[in-house]
Every structure is written in structure tokens, then in C-alpha cells.
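Fig. S4 source data, part A: sequence.
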Amino acid sequence: MPSAADRAGVLIVGAGPTGLLLAAELVRRGVRARIVERESVRSPASRALAVSSRTLMLLDDLDLAAEAVRRGHPLRQVEVHDVSGRPDAGGGRPGGSGPGGSGRSAGRGAGRSGGTVVRLPIGRVPSPFPFTLSLPQPQTEDLLRAHAARLGVRIDTGVECAAVRQEGDHVVAQLRHADGSTRTVHTDWLVGCDGAHSQVRRAAGIATHGFDLPETFALGDVVTDWARERAHGQVTFSPAGVVAAFPMPGPRHWRFIADLPDLPGIDDLPGAHSDDHADHSDDHADHSDHSDGQADDRADDRADHSDDRADPDVAAELQRLLDARLTDPPRLTETLWTTTFRVHQRRAESFRRGRVMLAGDAAHSHSPVGGQGMNTGLQDAYALGWRLALVATGRADATLLDTYAAEREPVADRLLAGTARATRVITAQHPVARRARGLALRLVAASPPLGRRAAAALSQLGLGYPHGPLTDLDPHRIGRRRGVPGPGALAPDVALAPDVALAAPDGPTLRQATRTPWFSLLLFAGSDDAAARRLHDDAALIHARFGDLVTARIVATAPTVRDTRDDPSGGEHSGGDHSGGAHSGGARSGGAHSGDDGTVLDPAGRARARYGAAIGEAVLVRPDGYLAYRSTTDPVGRLERYLRTHGITPAPAGVAAPASTTAAGRTS
């Protein structure tokens, strides 16, 4: 008989950012989860660097964003330079010194003149975090690992998943330990978060499809006294190729990425056949993966390139490329980490097969252009966590998990197509293509609407599910005015205090005031006290009928004046903080901007205006922050129909949720 410590309702393979977040999301909702990780020692390589605005909002829900920002380096703008000059593919001499010595001599920046400079603002987003945060992946992992540990998540290192077999109501996984011993684990659900070369994906028989990009890139995290502005990312196009540079935490730390010229011998550089690029965030192992299916995956496991060190040959090549392409090439005084990579655009044919699911790089891998990899994996975990928790605790039918794949697979398809297109655009060298690229960049920089659209895509705040299976469109509200969020859109955040901007570091926001691990129902009363009283009655019924599954909040300009003589709850039914306790992960409640009766105080009416809400309108926000529906009639009945339509069974207040048959796996 296995011990309780060996049991897990959900077995997660991979302790990268995706696996850590998924485990924490499950445990804070009452599901036992266990992580196994093949590597005994975590890679020191910085790998993924960009943390998007959407990811920072996610981390803020877990009380981790403030520490992430403290450790990181915010970037609010990208400067794009287009220089002219001779296309010197080879770059200067080794070490960057020309015939006349070091510095900007004949071999360093010679033969090129400064060209167009276009500044692309990436902070034009409606978020408390209007920037991209430069933060090396180990720092992000540290935050998530500490968060998971506080919740009691068990992580076993030096353990890999060697085989998987599904048997109706559970999964049988064979785990292999570092000493060669094996153990068979029976678990109700298995999630592969084990990177682009996922053993779970292979063992489950889930093939991949995709294509390769021809370009090869060199990457280096370095220390340099480069004089460029450190508040901005830097991209330089030259006839010899492209250079991208991003400031890192630390006074002189930068990341440089450059495409490598197609020259004889370039493939002999260390790691040149590996796709372990900077944004394969969950992949702690290093294997080349050129797979179109399971058999090819196994065949390509023979290629094993370590990229956890600084290779002097790659560093020297990177210095030559910078000397050849920049008008002010820096001297790389210290190299922290280098790698070369080719990009393999891959997507698993399905993110779910029975009781096995995939998330993060195990489900999709792609070009690092735009820094979307780790951020997309974290959004996978956030999207899967609440669904799997509902199923694992017996509150929802397993078909709810199909909606995870139905929503996230199209996101991956768009991501692969978009990053491939962007990679081709930035590496294009034909004169016509270069002119078209420059014109497009100038248009984006000059047009605020285009700039906002580009920033929304980069920040992932523009992502939504308007046609997703959990989105209920109201045919009577199709004509909603432009700028008002419809079902499927990310729920907008709004500063509640009249004199505080959304981006203020301590400004109370609607999102902070309505946090809950499950569904949040916003009931808009505005300044109509009679409507507020009716909505409080609806909130009481919702709490009685749906328990903690749905937290109803009245959004009003002032606390509601109520007669509670006939209300045994004293008006507390809508005001209790249902996000607290062990399952909240430390999420804050609304604090000073919640009334004593639970009303979310919106004194200037900002929230109602941003949502374009009518008096009495109900807006259901999913646990992952997206709008499920909007309704102006029968809030209680509408809510019940939505939940039951999607196989979700609420537990009334005071009644325990259905006993979970998946709360503990079986081990033999």
C-alpha cells in the first residue's frame, strides 16, 4: 500500500515555469499535485528573458509581480536603427580590433553611416504594468518555485517519465530515477510540461507538425560598457544582417542576438544544430528535435548540445558580427552565456489525449522573436489550472478539459505563424524587402492606433477567445460600441481611485478588488441605490446556490444603503473575501475600495464606463481573467444556465464539493 506522500491527483512532468505555475494553481484550489523533473541541477542559463505585461498581471494575482519588477529591468520602448554601408558578412577581426588597434578603428564600425532611427513604444497598453520586464528565466523560476513551496507543492528532481500508459480512469507512468531505479505511478491526470523535447508527448504517442526556418542565430549574455540607452531595447538592421540587443538586470548587462551568415564552417560552431534557443523556457534538457512525429523525436535524441556555458568561439563570432553591423559596436568585456540555434517551428497535434495533457514548450515551440515562449507557456498553465481543478475536485465533467485544447491550440497556431513571419521580416536582406520593412516600422511608430495594436500583441493583452467554446455571445449586444470589451476579451483592469492612474504602483484596481480563485460576477449598479439593493439580493442567492464557485461583487459609486432586518447574513453574503485562505495563494482583496457590504467602490464611475455596462448588467469573469458573458436580465438564472451548459456543477454555500475521485493517485 503506497504512502499518502507518494500519491498525487495530478502528476506534472517538468519543473520549468509552466510546470511550477500549474502545480501552484492546482494546489491553491484544493488539488494534490506532484512535480517530477529530470534534471537534478537547474541550468544557470538565462534562457527566456522577456516577461510580458499580461504575465505580470498574472503574477500580480499571486502577489509575485512586485518582487519580479524589483528584480527585473523594465523596457518601455524599442529603438530600431537602419544603417547603410558595405555588407561585410565576415565582421571585423577576432576580438573586434582593426589594423589600427582597438576601439572604433577600421575594423570596428567602419564603412557604415548612421541611418533611420524609429522608436516603437511598447508601453502603450492598459495595464498596471505598461512595459516588458527583462528578467532572466532563473529569477522567474525562483519566484514561482518559492510560491509553489509555500503552498506545499512536492518537487522530485532527478526523475524522468520513461513510459506512459492510459487505463480508462487513470494513467500509469513509469518514472526512472537518476540511479537507474524505476517506479510505477498511477495518477488520475498527467501533464507534460517537459519542454520542446517532451518525453510525455512522445510516450503518449502525440505527434508534432511544423517546419524549420533556415536562419541560424548567435546569442550572448554579456557585460559591456555600451553607451546605448538602457531603458530601451535596440534593433539594428544593416546590409550584413540584424542585431538585437536588450538590457538585462545589472548595470552593464546586455543580451545580444544576431543572425549568422551562411558561410562554410558556420555549422561547426557549438550548438549550431540545436533549437535550444533563448525562449525554450521549459526545456531543461538539451536535445535536437526535428520531429514530425514520434519516431523522428526518438531519432533526434542523439544530438546533445550543452548551452549552459559561455563558449569562447561563439563569443568571438558574436563580437565580429557586432563590429561588422553596428556604428558603435561595444567591447564584450565578459561573456556570461552563449549559444547558437536554429529555429524549429513545432506544435503538438493535440494538447489533450485522454488523461494526458501538454502545456508550454511540450505543446508548442517557435522562434524567440517577440519573447512569447515562456509567456505563452505560463498562459497555458493559467488556462489549464482552473479547468483541471474543477474536474479533479468533481465539480465539472471531464469534457471541460476539451475547451483547454480548443482555445489554446489556435493560439499556438497563430504564434507559430506570426513568429515565423516576423523572423523572415527581420532577417530579410533584399533591397525591396528592406525598404518595405522600414516603411512599415515608420507607419507603426507614427500611428498611435497601429502602435497600440502592436503593443497589445507583444504584451499578449490583445489575446482573447471571442469564438471560444466557453464564450457566450449575446446576439442582442452585437452592436456594442467600439472599445467596449465583449465576451471572450480579457477583462479590463481599471484604477478605482479618481486621482490615480492605472499604472500607479499602489493604485487600487478593479482586478485587485475582485480577485478569487474561481468565477467573479460583476454586478454594475452605478449610482442607482435601488438597483444596488436588487443586485445585493441577487448576490445573496448566488452565494447560497453556488458557494465559493462564484463570487458576486456589486460595483457602485457608493456603499449601498440596505435594510438588513430580514437578512440573516447581515448583508455579508456578497462581501466576504472568497479569495482568502489556503487556496488563494496570498492574493489581496480590494481593501479600502470595498465597502463594508462587499460593494466594490467605483466613485468616479471608471469601471462602469470602461466596461460600457448598463445599470443592472452582469459580467461573468472566468478564473483566467477572460469575459465569459454579459447579461442584463436574470443574473441568477443566466449564471446557472452558463455553468450547467459547460458541465460545471456548483456546490451550495455550506455544502462540501462532491467528493473527488481524483484527489489522490495510486502508486505501486
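Fig. S4 source data, part B ends here. The two ends are 7 Å apart (CA to CA).
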